[in-house]
User: Which sequence fits this backbone?
């Protein structure tokens, strides 16, 4: 009910299942929520993006709806930012968009992984950078996509739970925020001028990664 949402496993002793208790009708837990992101932090993200020559956006996790997905897609498209989805989260981004570059995780395209290693600014939205989504060498070798504990990339890491931030990889900027406030804030910010240096044309990248070229 708080922080990063996901499956929950309850281990209950068998004798407890045979007990009875009185619970007031209508008793519900209210999920806790992270605060809205500050405008100064949004400005900081755009400043990093403007200075980057090889930027990349990674989106993942759950809790996305049509409005939040549309917002993050508008942000990526308006700012010429290639976007990658995490393992089994491909539905966050419309694959027909020129900004969509692929999926990381198990079986990720080696060409895409190599491009991620070469990025200089990485914006990670709603993913904890777990072992699955940081497989960078061999099979199921997590936490190898970035240098430990300090990646060579400047990482902006945004999560609804502070416990996931700086847990494995140290970020340049960490923000505790829900995507329902963060994604629209990015999309509503004035797009930056088209960069003079494009690390990778997103449409060309999509074809490159699809072919699996090194």
Assistant:
């Amino acid at each position: 009910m708080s922080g990063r949402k996901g499956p929950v496993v309850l281990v209950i002793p068998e004798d407890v299942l045979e007990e009875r208790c009185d619970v007031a009708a209508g008793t519900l837990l209210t999920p806790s929520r992270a605060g809205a992101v500050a405008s100064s932090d949004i400005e900081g993200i755009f400043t990093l993006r403007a200075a980057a020559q090889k930027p990349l956006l990674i989106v993942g996790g759950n809790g996305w709806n049509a409005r939040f997905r549309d917002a993050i897609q508008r942000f990526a498209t308006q700012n010429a930012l290639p976007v990658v989805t995490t393992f089994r989260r491909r539905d966050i981004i419309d694959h027909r968009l020129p900004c969509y570059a692929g999926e990381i995780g198990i079986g990720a395209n080696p060409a895409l992984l190599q491009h991620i290693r070469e990025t200089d600014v990485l914006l990670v939205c709603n993913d904890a950078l777990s072992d699955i989504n940081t497989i960078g060498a061999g099979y199921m070798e997590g936490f190898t996509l970035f240098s430990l504990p300090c990646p060579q990339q400047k990482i902006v890491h945004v999560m609804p739970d502070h416990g996931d931030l700086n847990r494995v990889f140290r970020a340049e900027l960490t923000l505790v925020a829900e995507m329902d406030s963060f994604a629209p804030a990015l999309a509503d910010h004035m797009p930056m001028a088209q960069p003079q240096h494009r690390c990778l044309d997103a449409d060309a990248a999509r074809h490159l990664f699809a072919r699996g070229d090194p």
